[in-house]
Amino acid sequence: MLNFDLCTPTRVCFGRGRENEAGALIAAQGARRPLVCYGGGSALRSGLIDRVRASIEAAGLECVLLGGVQANPTAEFASYTARFAAEKGCDFLLAVGGGSVIDNVKMAAYCVRTGWEPWDVTTHKVTPAERLGVGVILTIAATGSETSNSAVLTNEGLKRGFSSDLNRPDFAIMNPELTFTLPPYQTACGVVDILMHTMERYMCTNEDNALVDELSEGLLRTVIAAGRRAMAQPDDYEARAALMYAGSLSHNGLTGAGRECGLWAHKLEHEMSGLRPEIAHGAGLAVVWPAYLEFFAARGAGEARLLRYAQRIWGIAPDFEHPERSVRAGIEATRAYFAELGMPKTLRELGLREEDIAVMSGKCTDNGAKILPAILPLGRVETEEIFRMCL
Ligand code: NZQ
Ligand code: ZN
Fold first, then answer.
1. Phi, psi dihedral angles at 94 (to 5 degrees)
2. What is the per-residue pLDDT for 385?
3. Consecutive 10-residue averages of pLDDT for the chain (391 residues)
4. What is the pTM of this model?
């Protein structure tokens, strides 16, 4: 186990009815006038926003509303959110939604008092030392943004993350019942994203870390099973609860503790949904991950890890004479599970074309100047090859 730092200060308020405590939680932060931010309308239609407003007013606070955050949020809207909050005199930001609404709020929180542009924070032109208070009411189990140290914005086709422990919200209300209304496609995208956050960390280059290995394997097997249950029965509370908590644990740093992480397919996916914002993050990951693993397997890189992945996660019996066959079976099992969830298999299904590949590879490697760290270094040529394998 390598040395590590892990700072997870977010208060997690988990379970049925907890959204009704939003007002009290905001008041406890010393705020008087929260801005409640939501997405394209699902939280309005479900009546959640009305309940949140009632809770805020019952705590003696003034509630200001702002809807319209798009999936794969833009720097422009985060900037608008910050200016709107400043104009209305808001002293707290509450995100009601998924990763997109949360990231919009996280980045706006740096800019309300400073007048900065969120994209300048993303691109490290300015370095925040403080922010407005941030709370979350989570409505989709997926990104883990409700407790994570990252926030992702898109600006003129470029999708980039900003990581800092300051990004971690002050509290996250997580009621699994709020995810019952998710369309099956979004449930499935969330399951893929949760799996990916741990699978990527699992493909590490230092292998002697039994505790974190076992935690990761338990999380992955639980999410695979809970994903099946939630797809079959959307109001299965226990399945939704497992997914919701796993989403946070998968991306709060726990499953990366003490590890030198070896694979980050996320870098490739961000170019896909950066270029086409209509691509759901999880769907992009489902396309790129099996090909990404095949790229490494074909070069014999990370074989011991891929073998363990096949056995412990997907229950593949080891073939000691031909370990490469077990590795391949593990990758195929991943692909089959994503297909079972109804996820796309190719870039074309996502609306991406062959000519987009050079653009995406160029962007994620700064036109070839940057090498992405992985078990094998990935430059422009290698990322192009992986994208091509997904066509
Ligand atoms: O906008 P509304 O109408 O609310 O609809 C949303 C949206 O269309 C809908 N939805 C959410 N909860 C619902 C619901 N529909 C019905 N019932 C509910 N309870 O689902 C759609 C997707 O929402 P979104 O917030 O975009 O999904 P997700 O949580 O997957 O967030 C994706 C964004 O987060 C970034 C992604 O790149 C992407 O931009 N990520 C953020 C991370 C982080 N901050 O730590 C890490 C991730 O790896 C990821 O990159
Ligand atoms: Zn993700």
1. -115, 120
2. 97
3. 96 98 98 98 97 98 98 98 98 98 98 98 98 98 98 96 98 98 98 98 90 98 98 98 98 96 90 96 98 94 94 95 96 98 98 97 95 89 97 96
4. 0.98
Identify the helix (H) or strand (E) that includes residue 240: helix 237-251
Probe residue for ligand 1, chosen from 45, 66, 102, 145 as the CB with the greatest number of ligand atoms within 8 Å? 145
Going by CA atoms, what residue is nearest to atom 32 of ligand 1? Answer: 99
Residue nearest to atom 26 of ligand 1 (CA): 71
CB-based contacts of 253, cutoff 8 Å, min separation 6: 4, 6, 7, 8, 148, 149
pLDDT of residue 261: 84
- What is the rounded (10 degree) CA torsion for 140, 146, 152, 153? 70
Separation of CA 257 and ligand 2 centre (Å)? 18
The CB of 71 under 6 Å from ligand 1? The reply is yes
DSSP state of 261: B
φ, ψ (nearest 5 deg) of residue 237: -60, -45
In angstroms, what is the span from residue 125 Cα to ligand 1's centroid? 27
Q: How many CB atoms lie within 10 A of CB 233?
A: 12
